[in-house]
Amino acid sequence: MSGVRVLVGTRKGAFVLTSDGKRKKWAVSNPHFAGWEMYHLKGSPADPSRLYASQSSGWFGQIIQRSDDGGETWHQPGTPAGEPTTAPDGTPKGESNKFVYDTSAETGKPLTTHQWYDGTPHPWEFKRVWHLEPSLTDPDTVYAGVEDAALFRSTDGGQTWQELAGLRGHGSGASWAPGAGGMCLHTIILDPSNPKRIFIAISSAGAFRTDDGGKTWRPINRGLHSLYIPDPTAEIGHCVHRIAMHPSRPGVLFMQKHWDVMRSDNAGDTWQEISGNLPTDFGFAIDVHAHEPDTIYVVPIKSDAEHFPLDGKLRVYRSKSGGNEWEALTEGLPQSDCYVNVLRDAMAVDSLDKCGVYFGTTGGQVYASADAGDSWAPIVRDLPPVVSVEVQTLP
Amino acid sequence: MIRVTLPPHLRKLAQVDGEVSLDVAGAVTQRSILDALETRYPMLRGTIRDHVTKQRRAFVRFFACGEDLSHEPADTPLPDPVAKGAEPFMIVGAIAGG
Known about the structure:
The complex is a heterodimer. By secondary structure, chain A is an all-beta fold.
Protein backbone atom coordinates (compact mmCIF):
# COMPACT_ATOMS: atom_id res chain seq x y z
CA MET A 1 0.00 0.00 0.00
CA SER A 2 1.24 3.44 -0.79
CA GLY A 3 2.23 5.84 1.92
CA VAL A 4 3.33 9.36 2.61
CA ARG A 5 6.41 10.73 4.31
CA VAL A 6 6.35 14.36 5.40
CA LEU A 7 9.69 16.02 6.09
CA VAL A 8 9.34 18.93 8.49
CA GLY A 9 12.12 21.41 9.19
CA THR A 10 11.73 23.55 12.30
CA ARG A 11 13.68 26.14 14.24
CA LYS A 12 14.81 23.46 16.68
CA GLY A 13 15.13 20.22 14.76
CA ALA A 14 13.64 18.07 12.01
CA PHE A 15 10.73 15.66 12.18
CA VAL A 16 9.62 12.88 9.87
CA LEU A 17 5.86 12.19 9.80
CA THR A 18 4.59 9.05 8.15
CA SER A 19 1.21 7.62 7.25
CA ASP A 20 -0.33 5.08 4.96
CA GLY A 21 -2.29 6.09 1.88
CA LYS A 22 -5.37 6.91 3.90
CA ARG A 23 -3.51 9.74 5.60
CA LYS A 24 -5.60 9.46 8.75
CA LYS A 25 -3.11 8.22 11.35
CA TRP A 26 0.33 9.73 11.56
CA ALA A 27 3.51 8.65 13.28
CA VAL A 28 5.83 11.47 14.37
CA SER A 29 9.52 10.75 14.70
CA ASN A 30 11.67 11.93 17.55
CA PRO A 31 13.52 15.12 16.67
CA HIS A 32 16.46 14.76 14.34
CA PHE A 33 19.29 17.29 14.88
CA ALA A 34 17.59 18.55 18.02
CA GLY A 35 18.34 22.14 18.81
CA TRP A 36 19.49 23.06 15.29
CA GLU A 37 17.67 25.21 12.76
CA MET A 38 16.49 22.95 9.95
CA TYR A 39 15.77 25.23 7.03
CA HIS A 40 14.94 22.45 4.58
CA LEU A 41 14.84 18.70 3.98
CA LYS A 42 14.01 17.11 0.67
CA GLY A 43 14.02 13.64 -0.87
CA SER A 44 15.44 12.62 -4.23
CA PRO A 45 12.78 12.00 -6.88
CA ALA A 46 15.12 9.36 -8.32
CA ASP A 47 15.58 7.50 -5.03
CA PRO A 48 13.03 8.21 -2.29
CA SER A 49 15.34 6.77 0.36
CA ARG A 50 17.91 9.45 -0.34
CA LEU A 51 17.20 12.59 1.66
CA TYR A 52 19.19 15.78 2.07
CA ALA A 53 18.88 18.18 4.98
CA SER A 54 20.21 21.63 5.74
CA GLN A 55 21.20 21.95 9.39
CA SER A 56 22.50 25.24 10.72
CA SER A 57 22.99 27.31 13.82
CA GLY A 58 24.12 30.79 14.67
CA TRP A 59 26.91 29.24 16.71
CA PHE A 60 28.33 26.53 14.51
CA GLY A 61 27.27 27.45 10.99
CA GLN A 62 26.16 25.14 8.23
CA ILE A 63 26.01 21.34 8.21
CA ILE A 64 24.71 19.18 5.40
CA GLN A 65 23.11 15.90 6.39
CA ARG A 66 22.20 12.98 4.19
CA SER A 67 20.08 9.91 4.77
CA ASP A 68 20.21 6.82 2.57
CA ASP A 69 17.37 5.03 4.36
CA GLY A 70 14.47 7.43 4.22
CA GLY A 71 15.35 9.40 7.31
CA GLU A 72 16.02 6.59 9.80
CA THR A 73 19.73 7.40 10.02
CA TRP A 74 21.74 10.40 8.87
CA HIS A 75 25.35 11.29 8.28
CA GLN A 76 27.42 14.17 7.01
CA PRO A 77 28.31 13.19 3.45
CA GLY A 78 31.97 12.29 3.35
CA THR A 79 32.05 11.23 6.97
CA PRO A 80 29.65 8.30 7.33
CA ALA A 81 29.03 7.24 10.89
CA GLY A 82 31.53 4.70 12.13
CA GLU A 83 33.87 5.03 9.17
CA PRO A 84 37.37 6.55 9.22
CA THR A 85 37.26 10.30 8.90
CA THR A 86 40.26 10.40 6.63
CA ALA A 87 40.77 8.81 3.24
CA PRO A 88 43.50 6.15 2.87
CA ASP A 89 45.91 8.80 1.66
CA GLY A 90 45.33 10.77 4.84
CA THR A 91 43.18 13.42 3.21
CA PRO A 92 40.44 14.51 5.56
CA LYS A 93 36.94 13.80 4.44
CA GLY A 94 34.07 15.98 5.52
CA GLU A 95 34.02 19.07 3.34
CA SER A 96 30.29 18.76 2.90
CA ASN A 97 29.61 22.04 4.69
CA LYS A 98 32.17 23.98 2.67
CA PHE A 99 30.40 26.55 0.51
CA VAL A 100 32.98 28.86 -0.98
CA TYR A 101 31.98 31.49 -3.51
CA ASP A 102 33.70 31.12 -6.84
CA THR A 103 35.69 34.26 -7.55
CA SER A 104 38.17 32.63 -9.90
CA ALA A 105 39.07 34.35 -13.12
CA GLU A 106 38.48 31.07 -14.96
CA THR A 107 34.77 31.43 -14.55
CA GLY A 108 34.98 34.84 -16.12
CA LYS A 109 32.60 36.01 -13.43
CA PRO A 110 34.62 37.17 -10.45
CA LEU A 111 32.22 39.03 -8.22
CA THR A 112 33.06 39.88 -4.65
CA THR A 113 30.49 42.43 -3.51
CA HIS A 114 26.78 43.14 -3.57
CA GLN A 115 24.89 46.19 -2.35
CA TRP A 116 24.51 46.67 1.39
CA TYR A 117 21.60 48.41 3.11
CA ASP A 118 23.39 51.74 3.00
CA GLY A 119 24.14 51.43 -0.69
CA THR A 120 27.80 50.56 -0.23
CA PRO A 121 29.45 47.45 -1.70
CA HIS A 122 29.46 44.58 0.78
CA PRO A 123 31.39 41.30 0.55
CA TRP A 124 29.45 38.15 -0.20
CA GLU A 125 29.35 36.16 3.06
CA PHE A 126 28.03 32.62 3.22
CA LYS A 127 25.47 32.23 6.01
CA ARG A 128 23.32 29.16 5.42
CA VAL A 129 21.57 26.87 2.97
CA TRP A 130 17.90 27.80 2.62
CA HIS A 131 16.81 25.20 0.10
CA LEU A 132 18.06 21.86 -1.22
CA GLU A 133 16.75 20.63 -4.56
CA PRO A 134 17.76 17.09 -5.52
CA SER A 135 18.12 16.30 -9.21
CA LEU A 136 15.10 14.73 -10.88
CA THR A 137 17.23 11.87 -12.24
CA ASP A 138 20.43 11.43 -10.21
CA PRO A 139 20.31 10.88 -6.43
CA ASP A 140 23.91 12.12 -6.08
CA THR A 141 23.24 15.47 -7.72
CA VAL A 142 21.65 18.15 -5.60
CA TYR A 143 21.40 21.93 -5.78
CA ALA A 144 21.66 24.28 -2.81
CA GLY A 145 20.24 27.79 -2.62
CA VAL A 146 22.19 29.80 -0.08
CA GLU A 147 22.37 33.11 1.74
CA ASP A 148 24.11 35.37 0.66
CA ALA A 149 22.38 34.53 -2.56
CA ALA A 150 24.10 31.99 -4.77
CA LEU A 151 23.42 28.59 -6.27
CA PHE A 152 25.67 25.63 -5.52
CA ARG A 153 25.64 22.10 -6.90
CA SER A 154 27.00 18.81 -5.64
CA THR A 155 27.40 15.84 -7.94
CA ASP A 156 28.85 13.49 -5.32
CA GLY A 157 25.97 13.10 -2.92
CA GLY A 158 26.64 16.29 -1.01
CA GLN A 159 30.31 15.66 -0.23
CA THR A 160 31.58 18.70 -2.11
CA TRP A 161 29.88 21.78 -3.52
CA GLN A 162 30.67 24.02 -6.45
CA GLU A 163 29.04 27.35 -7.16
CA LEU A 164 27.24 27.96 -10.46
CA ALA A 165 28.87 31.36 -10.53
CA GLY A 166 27.24 32.52 -13.74
CA LEU A 167 24.17 33.45 -11.71
CA ARG A 168 25.86 35.99 -9.45
CA GLY A 169 28.04 37.06 -12.33
CA HIS A 170 25.37 37.48 -14.98
CA GLY A 171 25.51 41.25 -14.67
CA SER A 172 23.16 42.52 -12.00
CA GLY A 173 24.71 40.72 -9.01
CA ALA A 174 26.61 43.73 -7.74
CA SER A 175 23.30 45.58 -7.31
CA TRP A 176 21.44 42.87 -5.39
CA ALA A 177 20.53 43.91 -1.88
CA PRO A 178 19.20 41.89 1.04
CA GLY A 179 15.63 42.10 2.26
CA ALA A 180 14.78 41.99 5.94
CA GLY A 181 15.03 38.19 5.96
CA GLY A 182 18.47 38.19 4.40
CA MET A 183 19.63 37.88 0.80
CA CYS A 184 18.63 34.30 0.26
CA LEU A 185 18.22 32.08 -2.75
CA HIS A 186 15.16 30.19 -1.60
CA THR A 187 13.51 28.67 -4.67
CA ILE A 188 15.02 26.20 -7.14
CA ILE A 189 12.82 24.62 -9.81
CA LEU A 190 14.19 22.02 -12.20
CA ASP A 191 12.37 21.69 -15.52
CA PRO A 192 11.49 18.02 -16.11
CA SER A 193 11.14 18.59 -19.84
CA ASN A 194 14.46 20.36 -20.27
CA PRO A 195 17.41 19.33 -18.10
CA LYS A 196 19.27 22.51 -18.99
CA ARG A 197 16.55 24.84 -17.70
CA ILE A 198 16.47 25.91 -14.04
CA PHE A 199 14.42 28.63 -12.38
CA ILE A 200 15.57 30.26 -9.14
CA ALA A 201 14.35 33.12 -6.98
CA ILE A 202 16.15 35.43 -4.61
CA SER A 203 14.92 37.82 -1.93
CA SER A 204 15.15 40.59 -2.78
CA ALA A 205 16.62 40.44 -6.26
CA GLY A 206 13.90 38.55 -8.14
CA ALA A 207 13.57 35.49 -10.37
CA PHE A 208 16.18 34.18 -12.80
CA ARG A 209 16.39 31.44 -15.41
CA THR A 210 19.14 29.47 -17.08
CA ASP A 211 18.65 27.57 -20.34
CA ASP A 212 22.15 26.11 -20.50
CA GLY A 213 22.44 24.10 -17.30
CA GLY A 214 23.53 26.98 -15.11
CA LYS A 215 26.30 28.60 -17.12
CA THR A 216 24.42 31.74 -18.05
CA TRP A 217 21.38 33.34 -16.45
CA ARG A 218 18.98 36.16 -17.03
CA PRO A 219 16.41 37.93 -14.89
CA ILE A 220 12.78 37.02 -15.55
CA ASN A 221 10.89 39.77 -13.76
CA ARG A 222 9.03 41.58 -16.53
CA GLY A 223 5.51 42.35 -15.41
CA LEU A 224 6.32 42.43 -11.71
CA HIS A 225 5.33 45.66 -10.01
CA SER A 226 6.77 46.48 -6.59
CA LEU A 227 6.06 49.76 -4.85
CA TYR A 228 8.86 49.23 -2.33
CA ILE A 229 11.60 49.82 -4.92
CA PRO A 230 12.34 53.18 -6.54
CA ASP A 231 11.36 51.98 -10.00
CA PRO A 232 8.37 49.66 -9.45
CA THR A 233 8.99 47.84 -12.72
CA ALA A 234 12.77 47.55 -12.47
CA GLU A 235 14.42 44.42 -13.79
CA ILE A 236 16.01 43.69 -10.39
CA GLY A 237 14.94 44.22 -6.79
CA HIS A 238 11.60 42.43 -6.52
CA CYS A 239 11.03 40.45 -3.36
CA VAL A 240 9.88 37.16 -4.79
CA HIS A 241 8.76 34.88 -1.97
CA ARG A 242 8.11 31.63 -3.79
CA ILE A 243 7.54 30.14 -7.24
CA ALA A 244 5.67 26.91 -8.00
CA MET A 245 5.35 24.88 -11.18
CA HIS A 246 3.39 21.81 -12.24
CA PRO A 247 5.74 19.24 -13.77
CA SER A 248 3.38 18.51 -16.66
CA ARG A 249 3.37 22.16 -17.73
CA PRO A 250 6.83 23.54 -17.07
CA GLY A 251 6.31 26.79 -18.96
CA VAL A 252 3.64 27.90 -16.51
CA LEU A 253 4.90 29.43 -13.27
CA PHE A 254 2.97 30.71 -10.27
CA MET A 255 4.57 33.23 -7.94
CA GLN A 256 3.79 34.55 -4.50
CA LYS A 257 5.57 37.87 -4.41
CA HIS A 258 5.95 40.02 -1.29
CA TRP A 259 2.66 41.53 -2.39
CA ASP A 260 0.83 40.10 -5.44
CA VAL A 261 0.21 36.59 -6.71
CA MET A 262 1.53 36.31 -10.26
CA ARG A 263 1.47 33.91 -13.19
CA SER A 264 3.68 33.42 -16.21
CA ASP A 265 2.72 31.34 -19.24
CA ASN A 266 6.06 31.71 -20.98
CA ALA A 267 8.60 30.39 -18.50
CA GLY A 268 8.95 33.70 -16.76
CA ASP A 269 9.45 35.95 -19.78
CA THR A 270 6.41 37.97 -18.70
CA TRP A 271 4.13 37.88 -15.66
CA GLN A 272 0.50 38.82 -15.03
CA GLU A 273 -1.14 39.43 -11.69
CA ILE A 274 -3.73 36.82 -10.66
CA SER A 275 -4.51 38.04 -7.13
CA GLY A 276 -8.15 38.50 -8.15
CA ASN A 277 -10.52 38.30 -5.19
CA LEU A 278 -7.92 37.34 -2.54
CA PRO A 279 -8.59 39.25 0.70
CA THR A 280 -4.89 40.17 0.80
CA ASP A 281 -2.27 39.18 -1.71
CA PHE A 282 0.67 39.25 0.67
CA GLY A 283 1.98 35.82 1.60
CA PHE A 284 4.85 33.42 1.38
CA ALA A 285 3.80 29.93 0.28
CA ILE A 286 2.30 28.84 -3.03
CA ASP A 287 1.86 25.39 -4.54
CA VAL A 288 0.11 23.52 -7.33
CA HIS A 289 -2.27 20.53 -7.15
CA ALA A 290 -0.49 17.31 -8.13
CA HIS A 291 -3.02 16.35 -10.82
CA GLU A 292 -4.67 19.63 -11.82
CA PRO A 293 -2.12 22.10 -13.19
CA ASP A 294 -4.56 24.99 -12.90
CA THR A 295 -5.42 24.38 -9.26
CA ILE A 296 -3.20 26.44 -7.02
CA TYR A 297 -3.00 27.18 -3.31
CA VAL A 298 -1.85 30.21 -1.32
CA VAL A 299 -2.11 31.23 2.32
CA PRO A 300 -2.85 34.96 2.43
CA ILE A 301 -1.09 36.83 5.20
CA LYS A 302 -2.37 40.21 6.38
CA SER A 303 0.58 42.38 5.39
CA ASP A 304 4.32 42.80 5.39
CA ALA A 305 3.95 44.64 8.68
CA GLU A 306 1.70 42.01 10.30
CA HIS A 307 2.78 38.50 9.47
CA PHE A 308 -0.34 36.61 10.44
CA PRO A 309 -3.66 35.63 8.84
CA LEU A 310 -6.25 38.32 8.23
CA ASP A 311 -8.82 38.61 11.03
CA GLY A 312 -7.18 35.77 12.99
CA LYS A 313 -8.64 33.23 10.54
CA LEU A 314 -6.27 30.68 9.04
CA ARG A 315 -7.52 30.22 5.49
CA VAL A 316 -5.95 28.51 2.53
CA TYR A 317 -7.18 29.97 -0.74
CA ARG A 318 -7.59 27.73 -3.78
CA SER A 319 -8.03 28.72 -7.37
CA LYS A 320 -9.18 26.06 -9.82
CA SER A 321 -8.82 28.39 -12.75
CA GLY A 322 -5.13 29.17 -12.57
CA GLY A 323 -5.73 32.35 -10.61
CA ASN A 324 -8.01 35.36 -10.26
CA GLU A 325 -10.98 33.41 -8.87
CA TRP A 326 -10.19 32.14 -5.39
CA GLU A 327 -12.19 30.27 -2.76
CA ALA A 328 -11.44 30.19 0.95
CA LEU A 329 -10.77 26.74 2.43
CA THR A 330 -11.55 26.78 6.12
CA GLU A 331 -12.92 23.43 7.24
CA GLY A 332 -10.75 22.14 10.05
CA LEU A 333 -8.60 25.26 10.22
CA PRO A 334 -8.83 27.70 13.17
CA GLN A 335 -11.23 30.53 12.32
CA SER A 336 -10.58 32.74 15.31
CA ASP A 337 -7.62 33.95 17.32
CA CYS A 338 -5.05 32.45 14.97
CA TYR A 339 -1.88 34.50 14.52
CA VAL A 340 0.65 32.13 13.03
CA ASN A 341 2.59 32.56 9.81
CA VAL A 342 3.18 30.07 7.00
CA LEU A 343 6.68 30.46 5.61
CA ARG A 344 7.70 30.18 1.97
CA ASP A 345 9.01 26.61 1.98
CA ALA A 346 6.32 25.29 4.34
CA MET A 347 3.72 24.03 1.84
CA ALA A 348 3.79 20.86 -0.25
CA VAL A 349 1.53 18.36 -1.98
CA ASP A 350 1.51 14.58 -2.32
CA SER A 351 0.55 12.80 -5.52
CA LEU A 352 -2.06 10.42 -4.19
CA ASP A 353 -5.63 10.49 -5.39
CA LYS A 354 -7.09 12.74 -4.03
CA CYS A 355 -4.17 15.10 -3.88
CA GLY A 356 -2.91 15.75 -0.35
CA VAL A 357 -1.96 19.29 0.62
CA TYR A 358 0.23 20.10 3.62
CA PHE A 359 1.49 23.22 5.32
CA GLY A 360 3.32 24.07 8.53
CA THR A 361 3.00 27.13 10.72
CA THR A 362 5.23 29.18 12.93
CA GLY A 363 3.00 27.96 15.76
CA GLY A 364 4.30 24.43 15.30
CA GLN A 365 1.29 22.86 13.61
CA VAL A 366 1.39 20.88 10.41
CA TYR A 367 -2.02 20.81 8.76
CA ALA A 368 -2.93 18.28 6.09
CA SER A 369 -5.80 17.83 3.72
CA ALA A 370 -6.38 14.45 2.11
CA ASP A 371 -9.05 15.88 -0.20
CA ALA A 372 -7.23 18.59 -2.13
CA GLY A 373 -8.02 21.24 0.44
CA ASP A 374 -11.73 20.69 1.09
CA SER A 375 -11.03 19.75 4.72
CA TRP A 376 -8.04 19.98 7.00
CA ALA A 377 -6.71 18.52 10.21
CA PRO A 378 -3.51 19.01 12.17
CA ILE A 379 -1.29 15.95 11.84
CA VAL A 380 1.01 17.32 14.54
CA ARG A 381 0.42 20.46 16.49
CA ASP A 382 3.13 21.26 19.00
CA LEU A 383 6.40 21.34 17.12
CA PRO A 384 8.85 24.23 17.20
CA PRO A 385 8.14 26.91 14.58
CA VAL A 386 7.93 25.20 11.20
CA VAL A 387 10.27 26.49 8.52
CA SER A 388 9.78 23.92 5.76
CA VAL A 389 7.50 21.07 4.73
CA GLU A 390 8.19 18.58 1.96
CA VAL A 391 6.19 15.49 1.08
CA GLN A 392 7.21 12.21 -0.46
CA THR A 393 4.61 9.89 -1.93
CA LEU A 394 5.90 6.36 -1.43
CA PRO A 395 5.03 3.28 -3.50
CA MET B 1 48.04 14.85 25.29
CA ILE B 2 46.03 18.02 24.96
CA ARG B 3 42.56 17.94 26.48
CA VAL B 4 39.74 19.67 24.58
CA THR B 5 36.14 20.08 25.64
CA LEU B 6 33.44 20.62 23.04
CA PRO B 7 29.92 21.97 23.39
CA PRO B 8 27.16 19.33 23.20
CA HIS B 9 26.20 19.99 19.58
CA LEU B 10 29.77 19.51 18.40
CA ARG B 11 30.26 16.40 20.54
CA LYS B 12 27.26 14.94 18.79
CA LEU B 13 28.58 15.82 15.34
CA ALA B 14 31.97 14.33 16.20
CA GLN B 15 30.29 11.32 17.83
CA VAL B 16 32.29 11.63 21.04
CA ASP B 17 31.41 11.67 24.72
CA GLY B 18 33.20 13.88 27.16
CA GLU B 19 36.62 15.35 26.51
CA VAL B 20 38.73 14.79 23.43
CA SER B 21 42.45 14.04 23.77
CA LEU B 22 44.73 15.17 20.99
CA ASP B 23 48.38 14.89 20.06
CA VAL B 24 49.54 18.33 19.05
CA ALA B 25 52.89 18.70 17.29
CA GLY B 26 55.06 21.70 18.16
CA ALA B 27 53.83 24.76 20.00
CA VAL B 28 50.44 24.41 21.61
CA THR B 29 48.33 27.28 20.29
CA GLN B 30 44.72 27.84 19.32
CA ARG B 31 45.68 27.18 15.72
CA SER B 32 47.63 23.98 16.37
CA ILE B 33 44.88 22.59 18.58
CA LEU B 34 42.15 23.39 16.04
CA ASP B 35 44.27 21.98 13.21
CA ALA B 36 44.69 18.73 15.14
CA LEU B 37 41.03 18.66 16.13
CA GLU B 38 39.82 19.15 12.55
CA THR B 39 42.22 16.54 11.22
CA ARG B 40 40.90 14.00 13.69
CA TYR B 41 37.28 15.12 13.37
CA PRO B 42 36.86 16.62 9.90
CA MET B 43 33.12 16.88 10.38
CA LEU B 44 33.90 19.81 12.69
CA ARG B 45 35.53 21.81 9.92
CA GLY B 46 33.69 25.06 9.43
CA THR B 47 31.80 24.78 12.72
CA ILE B 48 34.38 26.47 14.97
CA ARG B 49 36.22 28.65 12.46
CA ASP B 50 35.69 29.52 8.83
CA HIS B 51 36.89 26.99 6.27
CA VAL B 52 38.94 29.51 4.35
CA THR B 53 39.72 32.52 6.53
CA LYS B 54 40.15 30.45 9.72
CA GLN B 55 38.34 33.22 11.63
CA ARG B 56 36.65 32.04 14.82
CA ARG B 57 32.89 31.98 14.43
CA ALA B 58 31.37 34.89 16.32
CA PHE B 59 29.44 32.90 18.93
CA VAL B 60 32.20 30.39 19.65
CA ARG B 61 34.53 31.17 22.55
CA PHE B 62 37.81 29.68 23.72
CA PHE B 63 38.37 29.41 27.49
CA ALA B 64 41.26 27.94 29.45
CA CYS B 65 42.51 28.25 33.02
CA GLY B 66 39.67 30.57 33.94
CA GLU B 67 40.45 33.01 31.14
CA ASP B 68 38.64 33.97 27.94
CA LEU B 69 41.30 33.54 25.26
CA SER B 70 38.96 34.12 22.33
CA HIS B 71 40.59 37.33 21.26
CA GLU B 72 44.17 36.14 21.64
CA PRO B 73 46.11 35.69 18.39
CA ALA B 74 45.77 32.19 16.99
CA ASP B 75 49.50 31.54 17.21
CA THR B 76 50.04 32.70 20.78
CA PRO B 77 51.23 29.79 22.97
CA LEU B 78 48.50 28.68 25.34
CA PRO B 79 49.07 28.50 29.11
CA ASP B 80 51.36 25.74 30.37
CA PRO B 81 48.62 23.76 32.13
CA VAL B 82 46.89 23.40 28.76
CA ALA B 83 50.11 22.43 26.99
CA LYS B 84 50.84 19.84 29.68
CA GLY B 85 47.33 18.42 29.65
CA ALA B 86 46.55 19.47 33.22
CA GLU B 87 43.76 21.80 32.10
CA PRO B 88 41.42 21.48 29.13
CA PHE B 89 41.15 23.90 26.22
CA MET B 90 37.46 24.68 26.31
CA ILE B 91 35.49 25.40 23.12
CA VAL B 92 32.26 27.00 24.24
CA GLY B 93 29.06 28.16 22.57
CA ALA B 94 28.27 31.67 23.75
CA ILE B 95 25.16 32.09 25.86
CA ALA B 96 22.20 33.28 23.83
CA GLY B 97 18.47 32.97 24.26
CA GLY B 98 15.86 31.55 21.96
